[in-house]
Amino acid sequence: MNIKLNQSQANQKSEIKVTGSKSETNRLLLLQALYPNIALENTSNSDDSEVMAKALTQNSKPKTQNLQPEIIDIHHAGTAMRFLTAYFATQENREVIITGSPRMKERPIKILVEALQQLGAEITYEENQGFPPLKIKGKKLSKSKVSLPADISSQYVSALLLIAPKLENGLELTLEGKITSIPYIKMTLAILNDLGFEASFVDNTIAVKPKLIIHNSKFIIESDWSSASYFYSIVALSDIGTEIKLSSYKENSLQGDSVLSEIYKNLGVETTFENHQIILKKASDLNQQSQILDLNEAPDIAQTIAVTCFGLGIGCHLTGLHTLKIKETDRLEALRIELQKLGANITVTDDSLTLEVSSVTERNIAIDTYNDHRMAMAFAPLALLTDIIINDAEVVSKSFPDFWNDLKAIGFKVEKQ
C-alpha cells in the first residue's frame, strides 16, 4: 500500500494518544516472561512488540530426541532478535531456531552470541557465521562474568541485563570501549531497579544480583518518544501558534529520545509538561543557524531531525550515527537517496550526515521506505510543504500502527493508493 499525502496544513490545535514505548514494552515483556507476577499497562501495539509477545508465549514442548526445534520467526524485529536470543539461551530443555526476514539475516549478532557463550550458552549459526538464524539449546547458565565491546549496539548489553537476575549467580558485565546509546542501557537498569532488582553501573562495569522471585508488581509504560518526534517535526514546519498535545509522557523520562524537547527548541518548538501530557507549540521562527548535534545517545531521531531541517531550509551536521548502518536498512544511505530526490544537498559517512542549506524543489516525489518504519514517518511531515507519496506505507506498523490515522486527525490529507 502506498500513501499519497497532498499538501496540507496542520490543525491549529490537536490531541493525540501515542502508543506505549516499544523500547520499554519489549524489555518488560521479557521480564514478565521470567517473572509472571509483573503486570503491565499501556503496552505498545507495534508489530515489534506483538512479535515479541507472541514468541514469549509460544507453546513450548518438552524436548525429546524426536522433536524438531521450535521455529521462532521475528520478521524485521531487531530488538526481539537480540532480546530473545538471550532469553532462550536460559530456557532449560528448550531448543529453538530464531530466524527473521532476509534483512534480519544480514544484521550482525556475533558479539551477543559470543557474550552468551562466555556465560555457557549453547548457540550455533544455521547459515552464515555471525548472523541469524540461530539454533539455541536452552540451559542453566551458572557463569556470571562476561565482557563485550560496547560501541556496536546497546541492545546487546540490555539483552544480557534483562536475563541477569535469573542467572544463578547474577551478572558482572564489563563494557569495553566507548559506550553507544547509554540512555537505553540506563533505561534497562532503571526498569530493573523500579521492579526491585539490584543493579549498579560503576565506571564500565554493570552488576546485577540474582533474584529468583519478585512480588506482584505493576508497571505503567510511558508512551514512545521516538513516535513523538514526527509530531515535533510537524509543529516545527507549521505556522506559529500550532499546538499538538500528546499523551502519556513523563518529564523524568527513561527514554533517551526525550532529548527532543531540548533539540527542537532551536527549531521553534516549545514543550510544556502537563498532567502526563506534553504540549508542543510552534512558539517562534527558528534559529536560522545550521544545527550541529551529536546523536550518539539518541540515533533513532536522526532521520526526523534531518528531514525537519531540510523542510525548514536550514543545514545540519549530525554525528554519532554509526549504528544506523545496521538497522532495518542502511538509514544514512537511504536518507541521502530520498532527500536528494526532493532537492537536498546532502552527504553521509559511516557515522555522520551533513545537510547543506537547500529546499524542496520537486513535487509528487515517491519516497521509498526500505522496509523501515522511520523512513516513512520521518518524511511524512514534508506534506506541509508539497505533495508527496510514501511507498509501502504500511511499514509504520512496526512501531506506530495508528500513524496515518493520527495524521488525518490533525489535518493531513491522506489517500491510500
Automatic annotation (TrEMBL):
Q: Which residues form the Enolpyruvate transferase domain?
A: 9-407
Name where it's found. Answer: Cytoplasm
Kindly list any coiled-coil regions of this protein: none
Q: What is its EC number?
A: 2.5.1.19
A molecular function annotated in GO for this UniProt entry is: 3-phosphoshikimate 1-carboxyvinyltransferase activity
> What does the entry list as the binding residues for phosphoenolpyruvate?
22, 78, 107, 155, 331, 374, 398
Q: What is its main location?
A: cytoplasm
Against InterPro entries, the record matches this protein to: Enolpyruvate_Tfrase_dom (IPR001986), Enolpyruvate_Tfrase_sf (IPR036968), EPSP_synthase (IPR006264), EPSP_synthase_CS (IPR023193), RNA3'P_cycl/enolpyr_Trfase_a/b (IPR013792)
Fetch the Pfam families from UniProt.
EPSP_synthase
Sorted alphabetically, the keyword list is: Amino-acid biosynthesis, Aromatic amino acid biosynthesis, Cytoplasm, Transferase
Its annotated pathway?
Answer: Metabolic intermediate biosynthesis; chorismate biosynthesis; chorismate from D-erythrose 4-phosphate and phosphoenolpyruvate: step 6/7
GO terms, biological process: amino acid biosynthetic process; aromatic amino acid family biosynthetic process; chorismate biosynthetic process
Which positions does UniProt annotate for 3-phosphoshikimate binding? 22-23, 27, 153-155, 181, 300, 327
Active-site residues are 300 (proton acceptor)
The reaction(s) this protein catalyses: 3-phosphoshikimate + phosphoenolpyruvate = 5-O-(1-carboxyvinyl)-3-phosphoshikimate + phosphate
What cellular-component terms does GO give this entry?
Answer: cytoplasm
- Family, as annotated: Belongs to the EPSP synthase family.
Q: What does this protein do?
A: Catalyzes the transfer of the enolpyruvyl moiety of phosphoenolpyruvate (PEP) to the 5-hydroxyl of shikimate-3-phosphate (S3P) to produce enolpyruvyl shikimate-3-phosphate and inorganic phosphate.
Subunit organization = Monomer.
- The protein depicted here goes by the name 3-phosphoshikimate 1-carboxyvinyltransferase
